[in-house]
Amino acid sequence: MSDKLHRFSLENLHVRGEWVSLKTTWKEIQKTADYPEPLRHVLGEALAAISLLAESLKFDGSLILQIRGTQPVTMLVVQASSEGTVRAIAHWNGELPKGATFNELFGAGTMVISVENNPKAGQNKGERYQSLVSLDGETLADCLKEYFAQSEQLSTRLWLAADDDCVAGMMLQSLPPDGESDIKSNQDHWNHATLLADTLKDEELLTLDAQELLHRLYHEEDLRLYDPQPIKFKCTCSPEKIDSAIYSLGEKEATELLKEHGSISVDCEFCNTKYNIDDIDLKRIFIEDDSFSLPNTPNLDGSKTLH
Asked: Residue 172 carries which DSSP code?
């Protein structure tokens, strides 16, 4: 199992954590677009981050991290499901400067972290929760650190790394103190755990397995490593979602597109799957119009390339 996530706990430090490494999944995602090096690096880090964040939450649905940039990168989206699947995409304009920093890539952008719960039985649309994240940090990990520091959640840090062959990451999270007397000791334990983690080099994150890496960092601590959980690339596009996207255009516009081009082509940018809608499909879609709901976020279902 090359793509996996391990949960672990530093029981004497009252800290829990996760480690993730993705190789096959990362290679599958890179096949969908020829990403320039600096963007490829950030996209890989975001993929590791969303995998770690999704595992730390208890939810049934999807966790989405979306960055809307100004220039030259206009959009980056990574998505993880509660079933252990991930996907990713980014859009950019022109040639990216070699070695461009995180801020140089996105400019005055914004980042949103969303949780989309799966709809309950009899419902077409699940609930959505969103949090706006500042892009003031110099790296994605810095931005997420500030996000957790400003929220009411537990102290949380991420360490992220990516190259052409692998993306990897580690997350630490302080557990709630048992009482007021433990607040100071908890802070001391947290400082100790993160100080050791700050010695991590990218090469170690990318090449060492969880057991060896954690042993190097925390061999003097009471470490418990849990069984690995698989992570894999999977796109959530489907003929049903494409039908819904066509329906959202309206029958008049969809019919005009069909007459102009002979068919409507819908490309999923997440996995490069191409869907073609002909006149028979169009009649079916609008005859069965009661079965469709409008897509929540068209650019997240990867089906907005219409021609």
From this structure: E
pTM: 0.82
Domains and CATH numbers, the chain: 4-233 (3.55.30.10), 239-306 (3.90.1280.10)
H or E segment to which residue 43 belongs? helix 37-56
For the stretch 266-279, what's the b/e string if a residue is b when 16 or more beta carbons lie within 10 angstroms of its beta carbon? bbbbbbebebebee
What per-residue confidence (pLDDT) applies to 295? 39
Confirm if 65 and 77 have CB atoms less than 8 A apart: yes
Coil, strand, or helix at residue 267? strand
Let me know how many helices (H) and strands (E) the chain has, helices first: 10, 15
Angle between helices 279-287 and 239-249 (to 10 degrees): 80
Please, are residues 232 and 3 in contact by the beta-carbon 8 Å criterion? yes
More confident residue, 25 or 236: 25
The DSSP secondary-structure symbol of 12 reads G
pLDDT tens, residue by residue, 68-110: 998 899 999 999 999 999 999 999 998 998 889 999 999 888 9
Those residues whose C-beta lies under 8 Å from the C-beta of residue 39, and which sit 6 or more positions away, are 73, 76, 90, 92, 96, 105
In angstroms, rounded to a whole number, what is the distance separating the alpha carbons of residues 269 and 278? 21
